[in-house]
Amino acid sequence: MKKIHTLGFGLLLLSACQYLPQQSQEQPAGLNKFTDPQLQQIYTLQDERKTADLLPFLQHGKHTYRQEAALAFASVQDTLAIPQLLSLLTDTSTIVRSAAAYALGQVGDKKAENALIRHIEHEARPQVQAEMLEALGKVATPVGVDFLANFKPRTPEATAGQTWGLYRAGSRQQFSPKSLAVGAELLAEQNPFEARLGAAHFLARSPKADITPHRQQLITTATSDPEAEVRMAAAQALGKVRAIDKGRFLSGIAQSDPDYRVRLSAIRSMTGLEYNEIKTALLAGLQDKNINTAVATSEFLLANPQGVNITDMQQVLTKIQDARVRSNVIWVILKNSPARDFLSERYKSYFENATNPYDKAQFLKALSGNYNNYNYIADAMFAAKEPVIATTGMDALLLMRTQPDFPKAMEADFAAIFKKAVGSGDVALVGMGAGAIRDPKLNLRSYYNDYGFLAQAQQKLQLPRDMETNIELQRTLDYLNNKESVAPENPFTHPIDWTLVATISTNQQVELQTEKGLIVLELFVEDAPGSVANFVELTKKNFFDGLYFHRVVPNFVAQGGDKRGDGWGSSEYSIRSEFAPLHYREGYVGMASAGKDTESNQWFITHSPAPHLDGRYTIFAKVVEGMGVVHQLKIGDKINYVKLRAPMQ
What we know:
There is one protein chain. The protein is 51% helix and 6% strand. By secondary structure, it is an alpha+beta fold. Helix 8 packs parallel to helix 10 and helix 25 packs across helix 26.
């Protein structure tokens, strides 16, 4: 969050005299770098978001402290630091220049654009130049986009930096025909992997970009690039291409690629195509050997039910065992069948007879394919003892309410259900109900005489535990009262436990034993000491033992760590976000949050590169063993235990 300050830099130095860094002796030997008390101090000031006290470290005589102070501002993100960070772009130390560039990108203010362009042209170190190019993309206006598109890199590192700069700009809807053409050129197989990966994501994730002119290069990349992660992103990009043979080449990829992530990316790119054109690929996808592909295919059908043949769905339903896939297929059957009321009675038995709460929740959602089931779903939602059933019941009602053919005659009943949810006291139902009331597409404002029930619900929350629900309620109140919404600030409640950090080695590993097999994580204590200490503290308390993976988004993340088991459970405290120059690649572990500085106990593991999460969600670990297990996880898989491994010798 950007803070407004009126003090000049000279006054800041005076006010921070008690924090003025001194020259230190060499760092003592220890398990990690935080045996150095001044590094502890820098990270503490970062954790406390104390800009004035951090600024003097940017001028410290020791380059390590300048570097760490610059990186601190990547998390603090205060525009007041921009002038000094810009001055560090000419620092004598390579690591300081690189850290300053990363921090400027994280602050994200276009005031840094011109300076970054000047320094990129004169920077001799490829790695620093690459960091500057990516940072430029995070702040670029059309001027910066033009520079990135015309930049002529001389090293593989700079080429990758240019590509990721284009990606960062494109994700902010800053692109041009020239930059898109450069991205397509960088897909060519002779370019470094890192450049091809960035280029594929740039073309896939630039909203509203017309990439049809680059159709052939994308097809070539999606079918022949040696790296699955590049093929995956290229297949995703093909969804934005306009072509009469689109169904043919996407179906071919979906049925032939050896990596499930590419197969499901091709299926997701089929939106807008006629069912009969892609039928064979979809039926194969529902029975794919990897559960993530089957789930993604069923979710595609749920999102695109028009024209789906009911007989096909009923036949394939008998061959599917997974509850989530079955649920989505049932939803499509109910949505399209003229006998939906008759079939609903049969499918209600799936819900009533299921013993696993996650399966039960999925079968309840399946019933939302028939509007006439809304009272049944609402009654089950409010009566549910397991949070995941109640939360999924609300998901089901929201899915109903947002359908384009939703019956107007039911609007008042749904408005009453959402109001009851807000008054239920269940944090998930309260938050989701508030979000529905705020949705301008649903036009619910006229159904409520006053909004006191929202304020009453807000007063019952316990902060910071219920911050996500608090944010939803406040946004809804602001919307209904025609006010500009400002998210409530989370109170600072959980300082870094430096005594615990001192016991954690830089190669500390954690065993995550699931019912699917063992996953081993390596913790990044030097990049995210607060998040790692929090995770270790919870692990030592056996907090995660017996919990479940409550959220699995195919080819994105598997998420756990929630006592409620539905994604709405938090601890009695929150910790601060910690952003370091790390990137979400396959198997990286991040802290889940409802926004900056709201993390507590939930975490996720990525299936694939997820560059849109970089610098927004704390990275605190990576998978070093068991990635195959991660790729097989599904919702409701149990975490048997989490424990620290003995330190490696």
